[in-house]
Every structure is written in structure tokens, then in C-alpha cells.
Design goal:
Number of helices: 7
Structural class: alpha+beta
Oligomer: single chain
CATH topology of the largest domain: Helicase, Ruva Protein, domain 3
Strand order of the largest sheet: 1-6-7-5
Radius of gyration: 20 Å
Strand content: 15-25%
Order of helices and strands: HEHEEEEEEEHHHHHEE
Length: about 280
DNA sequence: CGGCAAACCTGCGAGC
DNA sequence: TGCTCGCAGGTTTGCC
């Protein structure tokens, strides 16, 4: 569920409440997420001060004053919510709960348990298994048309699948791949290796613009996702193609044409939405 | 190595 | 009302 814009929105919401605060109380409930939570998590976190909240790809990094770094991933259904109680949580899917010295409570809630919580250190972070091979941050200075073209060169897979690959570029998921390919005018079925030169340039620009606008809108809420404050995201109202099968894409009469509007197909087991008229 | 389907787990909406 | 089915924003695994 949460892709880069949702994770970034949550990061900003949490940073405002957590940075500089001390973790007074940590409650671990179910440890069996995608991977088991680290042992003695409570002992290792309680009493620590939160220096900073950062993001790498779809991971949130909570940097603590003793050099420890808590790594959080939300999987498909994970949420981080401000508010609630550390004791007798109302929700059976609250797996980890923090309470700070000013009484702020943050709950990690994940019904499907595809998320994960891990603990590392500043020293070991760069070499951490989860970050090995991750591609560039799409909103950073290391991502542009030539970089993208180089990483797509020789790939026989459809461009849709290539963009979902976190080694190519970090942080995209099913929604923002669909939206980026639409704005770049590229068919999701096009072979990745053919996205070179001007096409790669257009795609890199589209990725950056779509992600930036989605962050400005607080992410996209389809079902589970909410910001840390509980507020919904708003970018779903601006989807060009995602979840809009048979409707018209922006500024196009495709819905009236033989193509019958935005098409839904399945690629690598996942829904793909695109306009066959505007995306080649 | 590359590419794809299936698996992980729970919840929800649609259809009967 | 209640059942079954399909589907969901991610990532890993195992198979060809």
C-alpha cells in the first residue's frame, strides 16, 4: 500500500511529534511480522531520544541518541498512527506502540503483517541487508534520464515490471508506476530496454513530478492508508489511470473510441492501468 | 542471471 | 444474513 509519497507523508507527520522526544514507554505486542521483530526491543528503545526520522525508499528510519536506528516498513496495510493508548489498545493489529516523554503515543498497526520492524546502528546501516542493491532515490540528485536509461539497458522485462523493481529506482509501487508511465506516454508493455534517450528522460521527469505532487497531496488513500494524524491522502482524486478502468484518461476521448477508455490488464500478477491511445 | 507465478496474511466489497 | 470469490498500495521465494 504505502509507496514513497505515503511513507514520506507519514515521516513528516511523525517527525513533527517525535524528533527531540524521549521514548518513555515501548510496548511490543505481536512480533511475528514479515520477519520477527528483534529481541529485547523494549529494553533497547526505552529511554532513548529520537534524533531524527528519515526515509530511504519505502523504509522509515528512526535515528536514536545512542546510535541505534529503528527500521520500519509498512508492507501493504501498515499504518503509523499518532494517538491512542499504550495500554489496552483498541485494535488487535497494533503490533508496536511508543509513548514519548510528552505523552505522544504512536502505534504501528498492520493487519496483514507484511510490514517489518528491524533494529540496526548508524555504523551498520549502509551495509544492512534491506538496503543492499536499492536503486537511487527518485527525488534525489542521483536520479535522471541517463541514469534510468543505463539501468534499463538490456532488460527484456516490460517497463512496468522494471519500475516496480526497487533496484532500478527506489520507492515506486503499483499506483505511481501506472501514473508515471501515463504521463511519460509509455505503454506498460513496452520492453524496458527500449526506454532510452528521450523516452527515459520523459519517464524520469514524470516519476519525479508524479511523486512530488502526490507528496504535496498527502499521498493516496484507497483503503488502509492514512497519514500519521489520521487524515486521509488526496492524490487519489488526481489519478489519471490507476483504478480507472473504462473511464477516460485526462484530456482524451479514449472512452468513446474503439479502445473503450482506460484498460486494465494483469502483469506479473498485478493490475496495470493504461490508455492504449496515449501510451506507446 | 532473468523473469514470472505463488506465497505470505487479513479484510472488504460484490455477487449469489 | 451468510457464504464464496476476487482483489488489495509489497517483497521474497522457488521454479523454469
Amino acid at each position: 500500500m504505502p509507496e514513497l509519497p505515503e511513507v514520506e507523508t507519514i515521516r513528516r507527520g511523525l517527525a513533527a511529534r517525535l524528533e527531540g522526544r524521549r521514548l518513555r514507554r515501548v510496548v511490543q505486542r505481536r512480533p511475528d511480522l514479515r520477519q520477527a521483530m528483534p529481541a529485547r526491543l523494549r529494553e533497547r528503545l526505552e529511554g532513548r531520544r529520537v534524533e531524527r526520522l528519515d526515509r530511504r525508499a519505502k523504509y522509515l528510519l528512526m535515528r536514536l541518541d545512542d546510535g541505534a536506528v529503528l527500521i520500519l516498513h509498512l508492507g501493504m496495510s501498515g499504518r503509523l498512527l499518532i494517538g491512542g493508548q499504550t495500554t489496552a489498545p483498541p485494535d488487535r493489529h497494533d503490533h508496536l506502540i511508543f509513548e514519548t516523554d510528552d505523552g505522544t503515543v504512536v502505534r504501528f498497526n498492520d493487519a496483514r503483517r507484511f510490514g517489518l520492524v528491524d533494529l540496526s546502528s548508524e555504523a551498520e546501516l549502509a551495509g544492512h541487508k534491506l538496503f543492499q542493491g536499492l536503486g537511487p532515490e527518485p527525488l534525489g540528485n542521483d536520479f535522471n534520464g541517463p541514469v534510468l536509461a543505463a539501468s534499463l539497458a538490456g532488460k527484456a522485462t516490460p517497463i512496468k515490471a522494471a519500475l516496480l523493481d526497487q533496484k532500478v529506482v527506489a520507492g515506486l509501487g503499483n499506483i505511481y508506476v501506472a501514473e508515471s508511465l501515463f504521463w511519460a506516454g509509455l505503454s506498460p508493455k513496452r520492453l524496458a530496454r527500449t526506454v532510452q534517450g528521450e523516452r527515459a528522460e520523459r519517464l524520469a521527469q514524470a516519476v519525479r513530478r508524479v511523486l512530488g505532487e502526490a507528496i504535496d497531496a498527502g499521498g493516496s488513500t484507497l483503503r488502509d492508508y492514512v497519514q500519521a494524524s489520521g487524515e486521509l491522502g488526496y492524490f487519489q482524486h488526481r489519478f489519471a489511470v490507476y483504478d480507472r478502468a473504462r473511464q477516460a484518461c485526462p484530456g482524451c476521448d479514449c472512452a468513446l473510441a474503439r479502445t473503450d477508455g482506460i484498460r486494465r490488464i494483469v502483469q506479473a500478477g498485478r493490475s496495470t492501468f493504461y490508455c492504449p491511445r496515449r501510451q506507446r
